[in-house]
Specification:
The protein is an all-beta fold and about 290 residues long. A six-stranded antiparallel beta sheet has the order 1-9-3-4-5-6. Strands 10-11-12-19-14-15 form a six-stranded antiparallel beta sheet. A three-stranded antiparallel beta sheet has the order 2-8-7, with no helix packed on it. The longest helix is centred in the middle third of the chain and has 4 residues.
């Protein structure tokens, strides 16, 4: 087991399982510590349905669907995630997250510390940004409005270099873009799309062929990441020893598999074949 500064990972990430009942209810996590959720990802397990994500930066009832390119939607009345609590969320009657007798999974991450950056005042980045960050766990939720200029940069809130970034155009139907620091030997030239099955794509207009730094991420001028006047949300992760790992491996088609060392027992795993068109695969310890 690798050394880690995080004594209780359940304070920063958790998985919860529940069965829908189409009534307003609290969804909680059962870790050693309360999980003050800032980003929650919900998916039906026993029925076909979309993946829905909500976060405290965009606000309650504002959902995005990670398997679709659709723009941000806003639930009405008691639908969707109606509140974030000290150990979970409150969900409403919407069948997408609470259909009667359907089993669901929820993955939750804690950020928690608000940040904002006036780029013209601080000279950090060229686009204003705001969000919520947890430097201990290496997780940030960052929002900004694009300017359509290649090479624009955004303060991401972390003090460590991001290993993975997931960005979505909130206002329009555009694919999710994913940066991963082990996606080929030149990750800043590549992008994956979370809602698509395709292999990695070599392109300069997503990350401007520039790796993120400990302070900023750099954007191209593609509408999926930086269109003038359009709102964006980015979920950003950096590695934390003994808690999170973002790596790559080459498969061997052997029944015994390829051993991938993480240094700890994972609670959540997301895999994508970058060489071929295949689905994204998710596993968790629940």
């Amino acid at each position: 087991m690798a050394y880690t500064a995080i004594d209780d990972p359940s304070a920063y990430f958790g998985t919860t399982l529940y069965t829908g009942n189409e009534t307003v209810r609290a969804i909680t996590f059962d870790g050693n510590s309360d999980l003050d959720v800032d980003w929650i990802w919900l998916k039906s397990r026993s029925a076909t349905g979309n993946h829905h994500v909500y976060d405290t930066v965009r606000g309650t009832q504002k959902h995005l669907r990670t398997n679709l390119n659709s723009a941000e939607g806003t639930n009405s009345g008691t639908d969707g995630v109606t509140a974030f609590s000290s150990n979970g969320v409150t969900i409403g009657t919407n069948t997408a997250s609470n259909a009667n007798n359907v089993t669901f999974v929820g993955w939750g991450w804690k950020a928690g510390t608000s940040f904002s950056n006036d780029a013209s005042s601080t000279s950090v980045g060229s686009i204003d940004s705001a969000g919520s960050v947890n430097t201990d766990a290496g997780f940030s939720i960052c929002s900004f409005t694009g300017n359509g200029t290649g090479g624009a940069s955004v303060k991401h809130g972390l003090s460590t270099k991001p290993a993975m970034m997931i960005i979505k155009n909130r206002d329009e139907a555009d694919s999710w873009q994913v940066y991963h620091h082990k996606n080929t030997s030149a990750p800043a030239t590549e992008t994956l799309q979370l809602n698509e099955t395709g292999a990695t794509v070599d392109t300069a207009n997503r990350w401007n062929d520039t790796e993120p730094t400990t302070a900023i991420l750099t954007l191209g001028d593609n509408p999926t990441v930086n269109k003038n006047g359009i709102k964006y949300i980015v979920y950003i992760f950096s590695e934390k020893q003994g808690y999170s790992k973002f790596g790559s491996y080459t498969a061997n088609a052997n029944a015994d598999g390829t051993f991938v060392y993480t240094g700890f027992k994972p609670a959540f795993l997301l895999i994508k074949n970058t060489s071929q068109a295949t689905d994204w695969i998710m596993y968790d310890n629940k």
